[in-house]
């Protein structure tokens, strides 16, 4: 069980680092016979959705998790990665809201995630951090 939770937290951290947002991890062990954890994450657009999928798959590979099944694609607005004990749902925001999985699994406990602000969000277009970027004069 501990390995499943560690995998789930690592995948959550990886998609968050790639600027996935509204990252939620549900402990569904008492409610579901199909997996231990559901990870939900939102993306800004189809390209971002593909990047989050790649990030999640990379995190699973690094953890030597079994090769996950992949369903859906960025055109559908919803990608599911099934790694056995962990099922990852990556959504476009509007698709996530429409299907409302967080409401369906609301009785499941959530797992506290200690996600720091991703370093990538501090970058400006020229590769400088926001702190060191020159200010524009108005």
Q: Can you describe what's shown?
A:
With 138 residues, this protein is of the alpha+beta class. Helices cover 32% and strands 22% of the residues. The chain has four helices and six strands; from the N terminus they run αββαβββααβ. The chain has helices at 2-17, 46-62, 93-99, 101-104; strands at 21-27, 37-43, 69-71, 78-82, 86-92, 109-110. β4 and β5 (86-92) form a beta hairpin. α1 packs antiparallel against α2. It is globular, with a radius of gyration of 16 Å. The N and C termini lie far apart (56 Å). The model is unreliable at 122-138 (pLDDT under 50).
Condensed summary:
This protein is α+β, with helices and mostly antiparallel strands. It contains four helices and six strands; from the N terminus they run H-E-E-H-E-E-E-H-H-E.
